[in-house]
Design a protein that fits this description.
- The chain is an alpha/beta fold.
- The protein has 5 helices and 7 strands.
- The C terminus is likely disordered.
Length: 187
């Protein structure tokens, strides 16, 4: 019986960040031998559909050229409607095993973001791609607490100034790492 093709759906909004989302999707797909890659965009109402199709093809084409010679299939979709609903619906239609979607800009974390709604409606796991926030923490961590965590591999979390008997500690079910010297798991 032939191996099942990995079906991945990547949602692109054709913004300046779309290439980053596509790059993450290609990285996920590259982990599999046979891939059905579906790329969808949902343009704004009254958009010139021919122009949207051209933009999508121009964005995705160069990425697909890097995959030449691999047994991948690519499908481009332009859909109309509410983006989160259309993404989740297409994922269900194609039986996607993974959705890749971006979340950028000032709306991050807002309940109304497309990515948040896709996660809620998705029929499969969803990878949300965003930029790492380089701004300083509004509440910086205690340097002594950070040092204790590093020194104890997470067994202790707080320095003496922040420890108390009634303080709840984060629960870790297990921690495992691979040792390349003996090939086994270290607990």
């Amino acid at each position: 019986m032939p191996a099942e093709r990995f079906c991945l759906l990547v949602a692109l909004d054709l913004s300046e960040y779309a290439e980053i989302v596509l790059e993450h999707a290609i990285d996920q797909a590259a982990r599999h031998d046979d891939v059905d890659l579906h790329v969808v965009t949902i343009p704004r109402r009254n958009a010139d559909i021919a122009d949207v199709k051209r933009q999508l093809a121009e964005l995705v084409g160069p990425a697909l050229e890097t995959l030449r010679g691999r047994p991948w299939r690519a499908h481009l979709h332009v859909r109309a409607g509410h983006p989160a609903n259309e993404i989740a619906s297409l994922a269900a239609d194609i039986r996607a095993q993974l959705i890749v979607v971006g979340r950028f800009g000032l709306h991050r974390g807002r309940l109304g973001s497309v990515a948040t709604k896709v996660i809620a409606a998705a029929p499969c796991p969803t990878l949300v791609v965003g930029l790492v926030d380089q701004s300083p923490d509004s509440d910086p961590q205690c340097e002594a607490c950070v040092a204790i965590r590093a020194a104890t591999d997470g067994e202790a979390w707080f320095c003496a100034a922040h420890s108390s008997p009634d303080r709840e500690l984060p629960v870790t079910t297990f921690v495992a790492s691979t040792s390349f010297t003996d090939g086994g798991l270290m607990w």
